[in-house]
Structures are given as C-alpha cells and as structure tokens.
Design a protein that fits this description.
306 residues; alpha+beta; Butyryl-CoA Dehydrogenase, subunit A, domain 2; Butyryl-CoA Dehydrogenase, subunit A, domain 3; 2 domains; 8-stranded mixed β-sheet; 8 helices; 8 strands; globular
Length: 306
C-alpha cells in the first residue's frame, strides 16, 4: 500500500512504446534478455534540432515514473528544422545520458519515483526515435489492444490493489482493538459492519466491471477484429470509475479505524493517500464521465479520449 505497486504496474506499458522503434533497435534493447526497464517523460514535447542522422535533444519532462530504476528512458521531442516542426517523436536513450531531477515529493504514490528528466545537448540517432502514436513494428495480439486504454488501466489496477489492502488492514485491526472511550471493538459496531459490507460490495463490483471490460476487448483482439469504440469506451469508463470507488473504499476503511488511521505510519493513511493520488491523474478526470456519457447518447467523444 506504499505505492510501490504503481512502480511495477506502470512498467507493463513500456513494450507498447518500444515496439514502434525500428526492429534493429528493438533487437538491441532486448539483446541480453527481457529484463529491461524503460521510463519515459513524454510531455511537453521539447523542440529538438534536426542534425545529420538524428536530433539534438534538450529540455525537461515531468512525471517519469520509475526513472531511478530505469535502464533506458524516452522523452517527447518536436523535431525542429529552421522554423518547421515535424511530427512529435519519442527519443530513446540510456539513462546515463540524462539527468534525473528528484522532484517527486508528494503525499502518496511515493514509490513511483515520478521525477523530472533533464536533457542537455544529448544527440540521439534517428533509429532510436519513433513517431509518437506510431504503429508497432511487432505483430502480436498485445499490440492490437487499445493502447490509450491500457495506459489508463496500469494506473487503475493499482487503485484496486490499494483499496483491497485498506480493507485487509482494517480487518486485521478490527477485532482486538477497543476504543479508548470504552466503546466496542470496531468489528462489534453495527454501523461499522454495515459500512464495511458496502465497501466490500462496491470494490468487488467495480473490479468485476474493470476486468469484464478487459476480457470483452481482448476477445475481439484474439479474434483478429478491431476493438469497437463502444468496447473501448467501457475500458476508459471502468478505469476511471475503479479509481474513484477505490479511493472512497480506502477512505471508508480509514474512517472506521478511528484516530489510529491518521498517523503517518498507519497503512490506512498510506492507502488513502496513494488511492487519491491516482484519481488526480489526467486520465481519471471527470471528462472521462462526460465522454462516456456522450457516447451513451450516440454522440462523439472529445478528441484523444479513445
């Protein structure tokens, strides 16, 4: 529940990015095996001077999760030739080529280590770049899954785990702890019994929605069919809804724990902070509900949603 789960889950996204590299570059990345850690800072794309054979990269990028544990990093660039800019690209380089500014001083998800990346006159050959959002150069089912939805899900699944950890932590402390006021133990309080049952039901329901949406989309992928926009919409909606419900569940567990849940060394305090930080991510905003609702009425979502 300390957020380290997010550090691991987010790395599941790296093959989606790296598959857009030329095949020769992909082979070099994994020449010594699959255990290669990739971290990225995509936004904002920074102007990169076009030079013979590649680009000169300068700039700062935020929210590079797992950067301190990475082998290679990728940053967003806007190729610049005179006054003309090319399509946004990702420039991949060894971690040693870039400076990590440890700016990730947050209330939760500390384990993601989402620090800033800083590049100073790093020359990157063109074969170590790819167009952002470009098609993968590997033909596997995994690369036909909606990539934006997957990028959202690797965040949402952390919330589900954190919420489960919060309920487990409350269960561990509930039976033997008697209130300093002489009130019954948490497990013996009728209101606590009602609230924990509701939280358990809500978490299981939203988890079922989350995985049902994944299974439905994956069935299309395995069949060789494009994932319909309606199914992709459910991937996005279930992801955002999972984070919101998970945060509420973690907070419910903390409230039921009484004063013991307010201390920094309490697992429940860490669960609440971690779960709420996920809800702050741009993918999890209320705009998701707006877009999903628009599609429910047969209207088009805003660009970039699907």
């Amino acid at each position: 529940a300390d957020g380290s789960a997010g550090w691991v889950a987010s790395f599941g996204m790296s093959p989606v990015y790296l598959a857009a590299l030329p095949l020769e570059s992909i082979a070099k990345v994994y020449a010594n095996g699959p255990d290669v850690v990739f971290a990225g800072g995509i936004f904002p794309p920074q102007p990169a001077e076009v030079v013979e054979g590649g680009f000169v990269v300068n700039g700062r990028w935020k929210y590079s999760s797992g950067s301190l544990g990475s082998d290679i990093v990728g940053v967003g660039i806007a190729p610049k030739s005179g006054d003309t800019f090319g399509l946004p690209r990702i420039a991949v380089m060894p971690r040693s080529a870039i400076r990590i500014d440890e700016t990730w001083d947050t209330v939760g998800l500390l384990g993601t280590g989402s620090h800033d990346l800083v590049a100073e006159h790093v020359r990157v050959s063109e074969e170590w770049t790819f167009v952002r959002g470009g098609l993968p150069n590997l033909d596997e089912a995994f690369f036909r899954y909606p990539s934006l939805s997957f990028a959202t899900q690797v965040l949402s699944v952390v919330s589900l785990g954190v919420a489960r950890a919060a309920l487990d932590a409350l269960a561990d402390m509930a039976s033997g702890r008697v209130s300093v006021t002489g009130a019954p133990a948490i497990a013996d309080r009728p209101l606590a019994q009602v609230d924990i049952a509701r939280a358990e039901a809500e978490l299981r329901a939203v988890r079922a929605f989350f995985y049902e949406s994944i299974d439905r989309a994956w069935d299309y992928v395995l069949a060789g069919d494009a994932v319909p926009v309606a199914a992709t919409n459910l991937l996005r909606l279930s992801s955002t809804h999972a984070t919101r419900v998970a945060a509420d569940v973690a907070r419910t567990a903390q409230m039921l724990s009484g004063m013991s849940g307010v201390y920094n060394d309490s697992p429940l305090a860490r669960c609440v902070n971690d779960a709420h930080v996920v809800t702050q991510h741009a993918f999890m905003g209320d705009i998701t509900y707006q877009n999903a609702g628009a599609m429910f009425f047969g209207k088009q979502p805003l660009p970039g949603y699907l």
